[in-house]
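Posting this for the archive.
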Amino acid sequence: MTTESDPSYPAHWEADVVLRDGGTARIRPITTADAGRLVSFYEQVSDESKYYRFFAPYPRLSDRDVHRFTHHDYVDRVGLAATIGGEFIGTVRYDRIGADGRAATGPSDEAEVAFLVQDAHQGRGVASALLEHIGAVARERGIRRFAAEVLPANTKMIKVFTDVGYEQKRSFEDGSVHLTLDLEPTAESLAVQRAREQRAEARSVQRLLAPGSVAVVGVSRSLAGVGAAALRNLRDSGFHGHLYAVNEAVTRDLLDGVRAYPAIGAIGAPVDLAVIAVPADRVPEAVAACGEHGVQGLVVLSAGYGESGPDGLARQRELVRQVRSYGMRLIGPNAYGVINTAPEVELNASLTPAPMPVRGRTGLFTQSGAIGIALLSALLRRGEGLSSFVSAGNRADVSGNDILQYWYDDEATDVALMYLETLGNPRKFTRLARRTAAVKPVVVARGGRHTPAGHVVPDTRLPDATVSDLLRQAGVIRVDTVTELVDVGLLLASQPLPAGPRIAILGNSESLGVLTYDACLTQGLRPLPPIDLTTAASPAEFRASLTEALASDANDAVVVTAIPWVNEQAPVEELADALRSAVAEHPGKPVAVVHVELGELVEALSAGRGSWGSASDPGPQKPDGLEMPLRAEPGFGSRIPSYPAAERAVRAFAEAVRYGQWRRANAEVGQVPEYEDIDEAGTAAQLAGLLDGVDGEAVLTLTDWDARELLGRYGIRVQPTLPAPSPDAAVRAAGVLGYPVALKTTAPHLRHRADLGGVRLDLRDEAELRLSYEELTEALGKPAELQPVIQPMVPRGVDTVVRSVIDPAAGAVLSFGLAGVASELLGDTAHRLVPATDRDAAGLIRSIRTAPLLFGWRGSDPVDTPALEELLLRLSRLVDDHPEVIGVSLEPVVVATEGLSVLSATVRVAHPPARGDLGPRTLPSY
């Protein structure tokens, strides 16, 4: 007998999933304790569905059926259930079969699979989610194919199989459709899985941001406190749906003008969203009431959770489990709330008092309520509106990943701004951010270098610089402060992307123009000489100069500098009108204004809302196809962003230039090359043999011989190395390898430290070798301590280091840098996620600061960078194809003018995790 407490129970198969309609369900193995749930579930299935499952009328399950469907060995027979509120809504099982289609009596890699989904939950994607998970379980248990028999009339189930993206065969036999699915993940199956993930998670966020009805639980009768504030903000925002107040001691029909009830269950209508503002110890009761009433999502404003210490963290975990058990999603706890300015919604379920932000094209996500307040205030002061705002607090459930899924195809959002303290799952975040950044900018400010209390996320050992590299690879605009977040967001939300780095500068202050020029050079831009209009310049002269600059082919963007006029009546409004008029005539380039003590100009420039409108007056809309334009659209850019310092404006332009370059470079997707000489099967067999007998999570460092053999299977040749424990052994090794040779120490404290004198090169004969051996041992120690080795000499070139490591959260990361103390001291290493494409590899070697040394610095010969790119791609393929390879260090890799030589390799292997990056869709576990 197997129950959830038994050691044999595969707890790692449990998972929470988001269904097609945005609700959630829990998938878990079926145990012997589920007999009652199975019978109850079956009784709620229609006769038609039972007929489709068993090919005959089957009104009830016999005791034998119940026993068979609840007793599994979790190897040859496995059953999974999708549950909501602890009750089954769908089941799937497989039975391993032999070549004759009967129960397997010996080794077999094929299984028969069958589903049953409760009629009330059909169409929600339950069967598709179950198929993903049972497929992952089957692969883990050595099953490579599923066979299924389906009646021709059961078109829904046939579609589940045919739409999954696996390679499959289909035939019609004995009145039924016979399907065979190859369970090896394919590019198509992965694309299907991720498309379903995006639609489901986006829909789950949409249900939170566009509810038809909202209840605030915890509104005090005195109308004081957080609950009353949330209710007031919802009411005053003009929310278009039904609004309810809940207080268990309410004695009147209305609270603050809103219909009031003693319990959410007393509301005689559906409630889509509940805002919970009760003490933490009463939240479980409120959640249960919401779940029983069918509420779709929660915003929990209550504090006292992960941010308060270990006890609070335990409460937070239990809260997530409880919320998901009812199929709901959660923003919070300790959340600040959500805002949606869409004219058909106008939702302010937050602690932001009226008036709520005007309508705009910028989406904002924060983990911190305090930072959320600061960002909202900054955007409001500078005239920027919002499409949506989510401040998720401890983000125990809904995270930045979910919001990115929503913003990806949200036509109301053109720019995504995110303040993050942690990335949660960096691999998934970069994947989602890369897809989103291909159509609209994603700007991220990170507020923490370590995981703060209250954020229950997989920890990452990656340094901050590495995370920044991975974000850049994904096209994310990484900024350091919330001020920069606003600065960059304002430019991207109101201006087209610059076509290049050439910046024209004009204005009425020579000094401010020079400061702007210097700032451009600092940021790697190419400024043109500033045009000084003199302090007497009129608005008309500003307009004429800006018009000329915008019409010129010599620049890609324009910075206008402005200082106050000497006369008392400064023509601020006229200047704003003049600048907007020039931009309207030539809308193809971005423009920003740097001002000194001209606050009125900021207001005047931001007042031209153009296509954005307001929450109550939408105004004309942007055309369909809301990708961030590389060229201007009619009306785009009618607001001109302004900055109180040249450095801030130029930094925003620099980020826009780099983002535009990334967009253009990624218009054509990079490829992961195929190499005909790769021995994938042989590598798998070698790894299986090496790990045979290695316990659990133990890590095995391969011998030099095994490492060379493993790498060689992927076309990575490591130069031979022979031990030299004595002068005579050194001479014999040199005779095998052939002169000239190199003599090296390999002791850990001397390894790769040529600067300490542990390397002797170009030894051309026995005499030189014996002399060098004697000098080496006299200077550094005995041979037993130095562990000397002999290697053949290779063509000279640039010494580099290539590595791959596995991070617990980010997965496999490919790293590259030059060898040597200077590069290590400066941290001059670049990183990319695996699998790397040809574009990734080319960008990787060019992104380090010392990259010019590879391309002919100061008249030296350029080295063979195509060979280096191929090495990076082969290593990427190795660690991507074989998750058992958890660490590879190739150091040094000498890159010559033709070819390269890998002189040393360290390889670490371990048993792979049960679920890899290609596993089924799941929400983070707690």
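DSSP finds 27 helices and 39 strands in the chain. The longest strand covers residues 87-97.
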